[in-house]
Amino acid sequence: METQRSNGSPPETHEAIMDATCRALCEYGYANLTMQRISDELDKSKSLLHYHYDSKEELLVSFLEYHLDEFATRLSLDEYDSAADALSFTVDALFPDPDDSNDFEVTMLEMGMQAPYNDAFREQLQENNARLKDLFTRIFEDGIERGEFEAIDPERAAEHVLILLDGVRGRSVVLGSDEPNEVGRDAIREFIQAITVGDEDQ
Amino acid sequence: METQRSNGSPPETHEAIMDATCRALCEYGYANLTMQRISDELDKSKSLLHYHYDSKEELLVSFLEYHLDEFATRLSLDEYDSAADALSFTVDALFPDPDDSNDFEVTMLEMGMQAPYNDAFREQLQENNARLKDLFTRIFEDGIERGEFEAIDPERAAEHVLILLDGVRGRSVVLGSDEPNEVGRDAIREFIQAITVGDEDQ
């Protein structure tokens, strides 16, 4: 993952472009994002951006992929003593932080809403989802193998957690409220408790 | 609810305008919706639409309210023998039908994504959500009172169900898949089982 990207930019250039995209997205929102605004955020010549990306769409697909890679790198699950810890850590990493501005959450949802109309976005978002789902599935499989969790279906458990996470994210943005956040955390906690061996009656 | 609307249109005119809006939204999507396209769907003179609504935004806020009223009218909960039946019926009514085109779901989510930028949309969507949440809360309260459900917090239970429903809806649209639908139904069923008296161990 540290090698050159398919667009041919070296890692540090790629990272600079991705950071500029993130700032421009948070500042202007998806609808008002332009290549010019990303260029303005980038402390490099404007031609650099156009050299690497033919279109805003191509850049944003790359941004979705970058965001996924960055997230996956942050989660190195080997460090954890129990599947339950790995699960809590992963859920926390995906939970919207109520102290942060929700500009980034709004932007990600807006890109999600392009999926029905935009094949490249939909494919990348499906890929992002598949990797997240695979991550949760492996944690559930590991927990079952270690005897921590009941013999549930790990893939369905992963989908259940992702439904809760996406539900919380969507409701927080649309309703402008922290309540989904609190209730969602409890719901995920209760779900984990319910499948934890010896915890059935809690 | 059968009296004149705040915009002054008689019920049958209001209904005709709302139906035309629904068709235009499903056909062209939120981004390409115009007053002209709604007028074209309406089997009345074009001036009628402009007489009742100054802007597309005003019309769409009215549409969100109409959709909520229509849904609330369909659910007359007095008919049910048990809170569990009322709950299943309400969940079913809100679940996206996998046999239907998801154009309408996409459109509703797109309007939801306007909420961070548009006060009138956000207020109407908060109102829609408050009424749905109130509906679920009353069902949970009723079930607790009848001794069907454990003494859970009815409002938090309502929020939990709405998080699952919104998570399913969002994931189905973004990923273009029926899987969230299936897993989400099971998740809601398991949640209801877990709070049903005498069903704790299922």
CATH fold node name of the largest domain in chain A? Tetracycline Repressor, domain 2
Query: Helix share of residues of chain A?
Result: 55-70%
Give the tally of structural domains of chain A.
2
Instruction: Tell me the structural class of chain A.
Output: mainly alpha
- Low-confidence spans of chain A: pLDDT under 50, at least 5 residues? 1-5
CATH architecture of the largest domain in chain A: Orthogonal Bundle
Reading the helices and strands of chain A in chain order gives: HHHHHHHHH
Mean pLDDT of chain A: 87
**Radius of gyration of chain A from CA coordinates:** 19 Å
In CATH, the homologous superfamily of the largest domain in chain A goes by the name Tetracycline Repressor, domain 2
Report the count of strand segments of chain A.
0
| Number of H/I helices of chain A | 9
SS strand fraction of chain A = under 5%
Summarize the structure.
2 copies of one chain form a homodimer. In chain A, 70% of the residues lie in helices and 0% in strands.
Highlighted features:
70% helix; mainly alpha; Tetracycline Repressor, domain 2; homodimer; 202 residues; Arc Repressor Mutant, subunit A; disordered N terminus; 0% strand
